[in-house]
Design goal:
This protein has 2 helices and 6 strands, in the order E-E-E-E-H-H-E-E. By secondary structure, the protein is an alpha+beta fold. It has a single domain, classed as GTP Cyclohydrolase I, domain 2 (2-Layer Sandwich). The strands form 2 sheets. Strands 2-3-5-6 form a 4-stranded antiparallel sheet, covered by helices on one side. A two-stranded antiparallel sheet has the order 1-4. The longest helix is centred in the middle third of the chain and has 16 residues. The termini are far apart. Belongs to the GTP cyclohydrolase I family. QueF type 1 subfamily. Keywords: Cytoplasm, NADP, Oxidoreductase, Queuosine biosynthesis.
């Protein structure tokens, strides 16, 4: 097999560190296991962030997400765990992770976790008529 799951998140320099801009990454195939039943849980992850000095490299992110496939996690715990790892790797100005889990027993779960750098203030939004 050419690729294997990995907990290593690679980065690259932000090409425009002087500008606030947002990056949105959609991960439609996240899987982990239910810690109670061992059955698979499926989710779509949406990562929105404003980079500081670094950006996350997408292939390493794919392998990182893959590393959860055979692990048992509660939805709330795994969402916060992923956010913590991403923030540790790239120290963004802002990051929001939205995890929309598929139905399990007639219940959908969406978990949203955020990070904001203490010294960052978002720019005023432009309002057009």
């Amino acid at each position: 097999m050419p690729s294997e799951p990995s907990k290593r998140l690679e980065t690259f320099p932000n090409p425009q560190p002087e500008r606030d801009y947002s990056i949105r990454i959609q991960v439609p195939e996240f899987t982990c296991l239910c810690p109670k039943t061992g059955q698979p849980d499926f989710a779509e992850l949406m990562i929105d962030y404003v980079p500081e000095a670094l950006c996350v490299e997408l292939k390493s992110l794919k392998l990182y997400v893959w590393s959860f496939r055979d692990q048992g996690h509660f939805h709330e715990a795994v969402t916060n765990h992923i956010l913590t790892d991403l923030v540790a790797a790239i120290a963004p100005r802002f990051m929001r992770l939205t995890a929309e889990f598929n139905v399990r027993g007639g219940i959908y779960t969406t978990v949203v976790a955020e990070h904001r750098a203490p010294d960052w203030t978002p720019p005023e939004p432009v309002r057009l008529p």
